[in-house]
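Hi team, as promised in this morning's meeting, here are the two structures we talked about. I've kept the exact order from the run log so nobody has to guess. The first one is mostly here for context; it's the second one we should focus on when we meet again. Sequence first, then the predicted structure tokens.
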Amino acid sequence: MTIHPAHLGETRPAFGAVGALLVILVVATTLRLPAAASDLSHLLPLHMALETLSIVAAALIVRLVWSVRHENPPANLLWLASAFLGVALLDFLHVLSLPGMPDFIAASPIATSTGFWLAARFVGALGLLAAVWMPWRVRPARVPQGARQLPVLLLVLGATVLLFRAPPWLPLVHTPGQAPTAFMVGAEYGILVLNLLAAIRLLWLMRLPRRFNVGALFASACIMAQSEFFLTRHTGATDVYSLFGHVYKVLAYFYLYRAVFVAMVRDPYARVDESRRRLQATLQAVPDLVVVMDARGRYLAVHAVPETARPGPDLRGRLVEEILPPQAADTVLAALEEAGRQGVSRGRLLSLRIGEHTRWFELSVARKPAWAGESDHYVVISRDVTQRHESEQMLRKFSLVVAQSPVSIMILDRAYRIEYVNEACTRLSGYTSQELLGRSPVDLWSPRVPTATVLAMTAQVARGEPWQGELVSLDKAGREFTESVLVYPLRSADGAITNYLTLRENITEKKQAAARPQALSHYDPLTGLPDRALLHEHFQYARRQFRTLAVLWVGLDRVKSANDSPDHRFGDAWLRGMAQRLRSALRAQDVLSRLSGEDFLAILPDTGQQEAARSAQALLDSVTLPLRLEGRKVVATASVGIAMYPSDADGLDALLKHAETAMRRARAEGRNGSCFFTPEMQAHAVHLVALIHALRQAQQRGELRLVYQPQLRLSEHRVFGAEALLRWDSPQWGTVCPAEFIPLAESSGLIVPIGDWVLRTVLRQIRVWRDRGLSGLVVAVNLSAVQFDQPNLTNRIGRLLDEAGVPPHCLELDLAEATLMKTPDIAARKIQDLHQRGIRLAIDDFGAGHSSFGHLKRFKIHKLKIDRSFVRDIDADVDDQAITSAIVQMARSLGLATLAKNVETAGQLAFLKASGCDDIQGRHFSQPLESEDFERFVLRLGGNPT
């Protein structure tokens, strides 16, 4: 059986006592006692003393419960006390009627004394069983105490009369030899069973939360049962078993008294003490200042001090005038006076200046009745209501804002009846607020409003969706006006719709102003140029009037940088300036339109190819002139694509598409130029689309592969690493040149998954080579600008290294100069992260860009790779020789290694070696090789690089 944890503290000693006494019982009943133990008549005074103790214990139990009867103790204890009142009386009669005692009423036989004994044991066992079997109620039913004791007293009286006046009516309890009869032994066993039932019930109650001392009651019931067991074995009133039975009975009464004492005295006082501690803890946890004062405002006690008040620990004994400013002190004294008259005072506010802020406090005062001879005390709670006060102030401001808002505001209930209108609403409608409250806003609409509109609005807002539209309303004088109406459902905290908010604005004048020519709406609001719709109208007109015309797509190459400036207004001003310049470079009959943020379109009527080319150059010249805005000089370029009507297409949409294609070709060829559309461009565009589509599937189809070009260390003449080069073998186009498909991959975003595949494949190959003994190889991988801009680049590469089990120093990442120079600060941080992971870094094609040496010092790189353009003619061109030597010397001064790419001839090799270049790669040394061929090449050239 599982005992509830609340009972463990009391049941352990109870089980221990019951177990120890049970051991004594077993020993005493199993040992053969000497003959002298069967008759201990010389110990009769001890028997009398034990009986007296039991009577005193029973009386104490009765007295203890009787003394707290007005505290509404549980009914169980009241019934138990009534039963033990009978036990005490019956035991007393038992003692008085013992043989050898003075005659009590008349000379009493041993049967009379034994009868009182059995009656007392029966009443005690039955009373205990009833007490533990009844529900344990804290506040019992209202049964008078006499009503509980009367049955017991009647039982005692009946037993007395019966035992003294009618002994023959009772069964024999002793044989002529004074041995107990079967009836008496059976009676003792019956009482034993009653006590055991009480003990079993108490064992069951140990599973439940603690409400009384179950352990002591259990020990009492068990010990009473053991006492009865001894008495079933006795052969006379003075033998050893009878003596043991009396001793156990006294012990049982002791545990019973203890249980009653705990339930009636100790536990209530413990609960009072616990309640006091909880009250004190609650007061300490209260965020309010709680103090006790007398009527004069003297601090008597301080129970809780919030952080905002902090009056200090020396308030006791001081008057409120000594602590608070005069106005605040008067407020406190007024609250005390009101509480003295009415018992409580609430809602008075006082303000205190604490630090640099003013805080507001609300007082609650309650009179605490005093004991006789003392004056009344007052409990004062000071609550910081600064936030609430400020919120109320803010709500009052919001109320004024709503009331005085120039927008007409209505609040409707769920039945669409008006509950509130502000002043603007009354001015708009001409009705007073009293005339509008309770009405439906539909009553204010013109009869010309369709019923379908009303139904649609009602259905939409009933679904919890806002409705917005225009309605024609009538004012009080019957005049019509147009208003823009927004009906918005208001929801409670649980999401239920409680009201509807209606915002109304008179837009009659706006509607009249909107009646201006519709053409005004077809112009770009930023530049004032025609939009695409108006452009179509101009094109149709020009095509009807002229046999030829040119369409020029002007793409500004630097507009994005301008728009990305910290001040967006600067970008808008720059676009307006560019639009004015483009417009001034065209003829009066030409049409200029802005298509998007960076693209403009010009239609040039009656224009051939030569005139179109001259106009395109004029547009380019106007763009490249410096533009000064807000003290800054901005220089830009443009790219122009030209399509001709009708030779290229006869529809504007097709001409726009062709002009855009030509513009992109001009931009790809170096920007700041123009290009005419040709059919080959269209075919090339189609080819690029098909190529991108095939490239999307190339990786899954296994069409991509890697080759490795060896890299030679000149000082040691050994292969120390390789550069991984990507190849695409397409079933449709054959081997596609990397210079063709890699830019497509970058522009389409495919370079990211392809780059991940390259890194994963290279790292697996390094792992294979290391397992085969080539542990010193370093493989370089080109990293595109798109890959470098990925936010989680370092973590992704680190994860791939961990998956392959390759040390970071075996991987070298090649970065283009332009990638680093685009955002040097961000690039420096990313390079620092990669460097800390142990990954080697190199700048590829160094010298072809516009690196700053100051920026170069910030980058944690290991190597500079000299651009191939300087190596190609290095054996004959003195300029290339000078540049290459300068790069080598600068790298050496910075502690960086150098590598020359595309070394094709012995003359190139000789100069590079003489200039101090560290490493080379190129076809003069070896062409790119498959992985197996590269491994054999390394082993054949110099064995295992380590």
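And here is the second protein, the one for discussion:
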Amino acid sequence: MSHQKGRLKNSKFWLCLSLILCLVSAIVASAVQTSGGIRIKEMSWESPSGHQLAAYLYIPQNATKDTPAPGVVTIEGWYNNKEMQDLYSIELARRGYVVLALDLHSHGDSESLSIAELYDGAVGVDGAVQLIASLPYVDTARIGVTGHSSGGTAANMAVEIDNSRETPLIAAVLQQAGDWQDDTGGDHSGDYGSRSVGIIASTHDDFYFGTYDDAGNMLTNPAAFMETDGAKKFLNFNEDGFAGIAEGGKYYTRDFDGKTAYRVIYRPNMIHPLVAFSTTCVGYAVDFFDTTLGAPKPLPASDQIWPIKAVFNSLGVIGLLIFMVSFTLVLLDTPVFSALRSGEIVQPAPVQDNGAKAWYWVLLIIGAVFSGASFLFCMNTVYSKTTNFFVQTGPLTIGTWAALCGVFAIFCSAVFYGAYGKKHGWSARRAGLYLNLEQLWKTIALAVIVIVVSFGLVFAAHYFFQVDYRMYVVAFKTFGADKVLIALRYLPFFLLFYVMNSISANCFNYNTIGGKNGNILIFAFFNALGAIFVVASQYIYFYATGYQLYGLTEGQRIGPIWLFPCMVLLFVTPIMSRIIYKRTRNPYIAGLINAMFIVMISCSNTTTILGGGELIATTF
């Protein structure tokens, strides 16, 4: 009895600590983004194209009706949301710009559209430009737009629309890892006119800055971008006859009726996704808009506080993961769920003979190889095969991969049991695979309660502090009912993997190999190894040769990027499942919890294209 009380006390300690971490995360992150008296408003409005848009509006103290400030629209990239532009939004607002951080159509909290309507109003960017220009404290002669990847190319569409106005609104455009194209293949290099335009062209960009022949073969890689005719023509204000060597970071100027316009190409040494998480690139944005629009409150480009917010956002992710585990353990000591609690801490199975060790290591290695190979298969065959029912590309691709790995784990477990386990006393009942009816419904109820309360903390952070919990691309954010309904469609894919993954980690692979306390770190490493290998091989080859290893279709380019959060989650989730299993001898609790929280963060952090059909991506 005293041992049980000690476990409960320990669980309550971790529960309290997790809540403290989440609260501190929200308080500090909120303080950073509102430093200097910046007000942040959450906005939702009907755009002129007739579709609902959502954004955050950052209003610095210097922006008033009497002293209107320049305005900047920040735009996230494809498969992301407006929070991914926090770093640019925060630093520009600190310098006195009014900032509108936009969710593109079919992203975040903006209305999801069909592919036929998606590009209306430049995917929503034109509506954002009109909105910020309508504010009485914004100087309509000094409005800029900046976006990452497809966010920047959507800005190009907005420039084309802006040209039809008697008095254009957009004065400056900064492309973050994008160029003068758009996602339908349109070339907008001739649309910029007298506007100031900058391009952050990373030397190892996954999508842009290469040249190609008619067959789609790459002729020059992104590292050689400054030597191309396209880059030189851009710097020469879309005219031929550029003289000399094109220099990165140098401002090229031209006079238009007494007004100076600028062209510049910045050259950070990084890959495509890191442009959205880089102090170097934020420094470029600060310098660009200071030069082209004039910062009301100039600060050095190196004076950046957004990394503090990023650190505390990450602290919130850690706190939330601890909360899910500790809250589960505390609930196990309530009368309702006590039937799920094991009478004692489940101990690792002793392994002494070489046969068991061989099975253990061989199955781990085979599992990692299958994980990597099956992901490449899904990247090449499933990407963008959305339907009327499965309307999100990312969860469909990753979900199919997860399901394949789940089926393979079932196969491997069956082979192990038939060839070795059955003969050496392995028992499914002793491992916890059998549940009676009461245990089954309580397992499901417990998992649902944990997920609902955990995301309740996310909604509370958003409501009280206007922040979420994120670690770069691992993001817990709020969502609407539509995302819940979409997540339910993908849930079976993730259940198949995460339930089986928990069974594999705990019922088949919880033993003394690796130490008397068990082997969870070994299992977690191999669990993520397939994803790690794909990412590492892609970028080692890319940096060594200047060309991408896995191909040039959009799916082949974006696949390794999608694995960034997967590497983290595939390592963390087995550890969570092991902690819960040791208290319950029940692999299904953690499997259900992990599947539900993974599918929810997947479906709330991506693009939703209604109606199905392949995504238009003719530029790749």
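Starting points for discussion:
The mean pLDDT is 94.
The chain has two domains: 2-17+310-610, 38-299.
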